[in-house]
Design brief:
The chain has 666 residues and is α/β, with parallel strands linked by helices. It folds into three domains: 8-97 and 271-524, 3-Layer(aba) Sandwich (Rossmann fold); 105-263, Rossmann fold (3-Layer(aba) Sandwich); 537-662, GMP Synthetase, Chain A, domain 3 (2-Layer Sandwich), CATH 3.30.300. Helices cover 32% and strands 22% of the residues. The strands form eleven sheets. A seven-stranded mixed beta sheet has the order 4-3-16-15-17-18-19, with helices on both faces. A five-stranded parallel beta sheet has the order 6-5-7-10-11. It has a five-stranded antiparallel beta sheet with strand order 25-24-26-28-29, with no helix packed on it. Strand 30 and strand 31 form a beta hairpin. Helix 3 (40-49) packs across helix 4, helix 6 crosses helix 7 and helix 8 (179-189) runs parallel beside helix 9. It is globular, with a radius of gyration of 24 Å. Its EC number is 6.2.1.16. GO terms for molecular function: acetoacetate-CoA ligase activity; ATP binding.
């Protein structure tokens, strides 16, 4: 029989729960603070009721190093503008590198281009120190922006840690992004140094990016240095006369980690810049701080991912997704990570399971979409691979169904901690997720994370229990963005999170907490497109599509379907004299693929006679999405606030035809 939502699937063994990192923390609280919590629920309540005490306890428990003392934990409980640990001076990279033991692996790397390789902890630390000192000699100083288009390789990890070790600010896009999409991000922050690659291989096919790199260098006048990694073609020439090869920089003057000096910076000093999807205008340049991410890293990796020096984490990602940063954060607990640069289904669909078995992965990252691919390909990992080291599965990217959970217990392992979480780029972490001391129920996220005062609220701001509402965070967290880079007067920041519930963070997800504390995410409540965990902004798509010959206007939405599937239609209004024919569809597809990425391409195109707009000129994406999911037009949009109210009728009629297209969704 099919598993039902909420059905109990797994209970932690007593020895597993009692030896977990969060259980050890509770023992410490009992000894050092005189605080005795009977279970995870009471620990969570304390962590959000007494947030100053909770974060102070984390500071002491993890031994956060600061060259100067802090005057208090939190100046005032306000959002935005919370000031955490004023006076402290810390460095994120130091805490990512200090636990790993000599002689033990830090990074396993697999690629379609290179042979398998392992980088040990002493080598990782020395290479970070070497690159960091080379960057100092280039004149890179604290606060300078350093950007990257490197793929998911050890060099990207080394560059991130070296950048942050000297107080510079890291930002990255994956090499499959087109130059226009990258420039939309990097031009905002005016970088001085670029780490770049010549190309990548995916599914056995080579993708040369030297042309894109030339356009990128030309479009970034602030650039003073380019460090070039010829990964695809070792004989690739320098992209500019002044560029330096990665091997040159690393071989010029090796530095031992023991001789390296980290740059201690203020707790709120910018660490890295991640990007929103660009739903309205340019992507928002979310800027996180050294101290906040250091504390959040220690918390989420130890207490919620249960990482330790014996752990090995593998999550398939690209460098353009926050999960790459998350992988780097896993190093903080002294274990190892696995990086894979290539097609996850090539040369065979069980490729990632093969890698997991070979490196004795303890936590395997997956998405519901990935599970559907496994089912379609008939992959049964337990029958082919030794997964005896595997303890847990980290589900992310989209809401996980009960069937997704059940597949792991049926086809991978019965004694398995299957975890689902949700949060995202905004905090480079999760709001809701895993706890190793709690049972697993089908389709359910185990708990709200410690220190995260998350609730489902109705339109009036009242909390809901066991009912769907807006996901709202009611108290500040140190991992919240400091600001959006270049956001004058904080206007976009305020509009993004604090427009609906003043003083409280509205995240933009539909959310429910049941009576036992389990959590459910029901997709985005705003217009962001979420394709297999990668958030894409509609404005980013429109900027490209609007330049295509014959396109007058368009509207795109993404619909989450059962079993982790999705369907993303684009509705196109052709210019007079043009029709949405195969040639126009091909032009749009080619533009989106080359200037954006393959994920920017819709699943199907539909001609339309009018695009619905508000009186202020905004496309009604969210109302259209809700109509296609079954809502009545009068419930989702005010006709008085629309330029063309009759335009919604098309979508009402289209919704009746939608099921036949959804059945064919990827």
């Amino acid at each position: 029989m099919a598993v039902k939502e909420g059905e109990l699937l797994w209970t932690p063994r007593p020895d597993f729960a009692q030896s977990s990192q969060v259980a050890l923390f509770m023992d410490w609280l009992r000894r050092e603070r005189g605080l005795d919590f009977p279970g995870h629920a009471s620990l969570w309540e304390w962590s959000v009721d007494r947030i100053e005490d909770f974060w102070a306890a984390l500071w002491d428990y993890f031994g956060i190093e600061s060259s100067t003392p802090h005057s208090c934990v939190l100046e005032e409980r306000v959002m935005p503008g919370a000031v955490w640990f004023p006076g402290a001076r810390v460095n994120f990279a130091r805490h990512m590198l200090h636990k790993g033991q000599r002689g033990r692996p830090a990074i396993h790397h697999r690629s379609e281009i290179r042979p398998p390789a392992t980088l040990h902890w002493e080598d990782l630390r020395d290479q970070v120190a070497t690159l960091a000192e080379a960057m100092r000699r280039m004149g890179i100083r604290p606060g300078d922006r350093v950007v990257s288009t490197l793929p998911n390789t050890p060099e990207a990890v080394i560059a991130l840690l070296a950048t942050t070790a000297i107080g510079a600010i890291w930002s990255a896009c994956s090499p499959d992004f087109g130059a226009r999409s990258i420039l939309d991000r990097f031009q905002q922050i005016e970088p001085r140094l670029l780490f770049a690659v010549d190309g990548y291989r995916f599914g056995g096919k080579d993708f040369d990016r030297t042309g894109e790199l030339a356009r990128l260098v030309e479009g970034l006048p602030s650039l003073e240095h380019v460090v070039f990694l010829p990964d695809l073609n070792p004989a690739a020439p320098r992209p500019t006369p002044s560029s330096r090869f990665w091997s040159e920089v690393m071989g010029e003057r090796p530095v031992r980690h023991e001789d390296f000096r980290y740059e201690d910076v203020e707790f709120s000093h910018p660490l890295w810049i991640l990007y929103s999807s660009g739903t309205t205008g340019l992507p928002k340049a979310m800027t996180h701080g050294h101290g906040g991410m250091t504390l959040e890293t220690c918390k989420v990796m130890a207490f919620h991912a249960n990482q330790s020096p014996d752990s090995c984490l593998f999550f398939y990602t690209t460098t353009g997704w926050m999960m790459f940063n998350f992988m780097v954060m896993a190093l903080s607990q002294g274990g190892s990570i696995v990086l894979y640069d290539g097609n996850p289904l090539a040369p065979q669909p069980e490729r990632l399971w093969q890698i997991a078995a070979e490196h004795r992965v303890t936590m395997f990252g997956a998405s519901p979409t990935f599970v559907q691919m496994m089912i379609k390909a008939g992959v049964r990992p337990a029958q082919k691979y030794d997964l005896s080291a595997l303890e847990s599965v980290l589900l992310g990217g989209s809401p996980a169904t009960p069937e997704t959970f059940e597949w792991f217990y049926r086809e991978v392992k019965q004694d398995l901690w299957v975890t689902s979480q949700s949060g995202g780029t905004d905090v480079c972490s999760a709001f809701v997720g895993a706890a190793p001391t709690l049972p697993v129920h089908a389709g359910e996220i185990q708990t709200r994370l410690l220190g995260v005062d998350a609730h489902a609220l109705d339109d009036e701001g009242l909390p809901l229990e066991d009912c769907v509402g807006e996901l709202v965070i009611r108290k500040p967290m140190p991992s919240m963005p400091l600001y959006f880079w270049g956001d004058k007067d904080n206007l976009r920041y305020l509009d993004s999170y604090f427009d609906a519930y003043p003083g409280q963070w509205r995240h933009g997800d539909f959310f429910k907490v049941n009576r036992r504390g389990g959590c459910y995410i029901y997709g985005r409540s705003d217009a962001t497109l979420n394709r297999a965990g990668v958030r894409i902004g509609t404005a980013e798509i429109y900027r490209i599509a609007d330049t295509v010959e014959g396109v007058q206007d368009c509207l795109v939405v993404n619909l989450d379907l059962p079993d982790g599937k999705f369907f993303m239609p684009m509705f196109v209004l052709p210019k007079p004299g043009f029709a949405l024919d195969a040639a126009m569809e091909s032009r749009i597809t080619q533009a989106l693929r080359s200037q954006g990425s393959p994920r920017h391409v819709p699943d199907k195109y539909f001609p339309i006679g009018a695009i619905p707009y508000t009186l202020t000129g905004k496309k009604l994406e969210v109302p259209v999405r809700r109509i296609l999911l079954g809502a009545a037009p009068d419930k989702v949009a005010s006709r008085d606030a629309m330029m063309n109210p009759d335009s919604l009728q098309y979508f009402v009629e289209f919704s009746r035809e939608l099921p036949r297209y959804m059945r064919k969704a990827p």
